[in-house]
Amino acid sequence: MARLFHVPLSPFCRKVRLSLAEKKIEVELVEERYWEQDADFLRRNPAAKVPVLKLDGRMMAESAAICEYIEETRPDPSLMPKAPEERFEVRRLVGWFDDKFHQEVTSKLLYERVNKKMTGKGYPDSTNVKAGAKAIKYHLDYMAWLLDHRRWLAGDAMTLADFAAAAHLSALDYISDVDWNRSSVVKDWYAKIKSRPAFRSILADQVSGFPPPAHYADLDF
Asked: What sign for the dihedral angle of Cα 112, 113, 118, 122?
């Protein structure tokens, strides 16, 4: 069985979990306190980052590379389109959420509100929190624009781009930092992806000291 060393609210870990679940790959989840830099964990990944996936006798790090490996070795059901230009768009949007969205939103909200407390690094920086709350509006509007022109974020089929976006938004939703009333089309997209069987373990997450809001696991939110 595969083994994933992860942190429940990490969007990068969640993206890998969604890919594994969508492809029905059984995985053992092992919570990793990466900030403690345990010697065993550093041997698995000297960069001291999660996720780390053990699969096919390999120990793999970096979520984008892990998801590409899963896609190439387990192509069904596909999370990447066949046409090069469509694959480019998926990769562009995965990069958008894992880089731009992460830097402007996730790191300013989730990391300030949750990660600092978990890792003992103090209290949230109100300037960062305000910047993240402002930036997420722009990103939700961009998603709404994409979904006004497409069935899913990258095109007519659900792809890894949708999982990358849902991984970040679901983690932020856990701490009630997403205004779902801002865009009905984004809310409908999230409800649709949230209802997939692959999302079940994500919705079952419980983080000590941070209870989820009442709507978190509600498919009809």
From this structure: positive
Report the chain's terminal Cα–Cα distance, integer Å. 34
Burial grade of 58 (CB within 10 A; 0-12, 13-18, 19 or more): exposed
* 15 contacts 164 by C-beta, under 8 angstroms: yes
Q: What is the pLDDT of residue 149?
A: 96
Peptide bond into 77 cis (omega under 30): yes
3-state secondary structure (DSSP) of residue 174: helix
Contacts 24+ apart (CB under 8 A), 30-37: 30/3, 30/4, 30/5, 30/6, 31/6, 31/7, 32/5, 32/6, 32/7, 34/7, 35/118, 35/119
- Of 82-86, 98-102, 196-200, 206-210, the poorest mean pLDDT is in 206-210
- Find out whether 166 and 17 touch, Cβ atoms under 8 Å: no
Lookup: tokens for 57: 């006798």
CA distance 142 to 16: 24
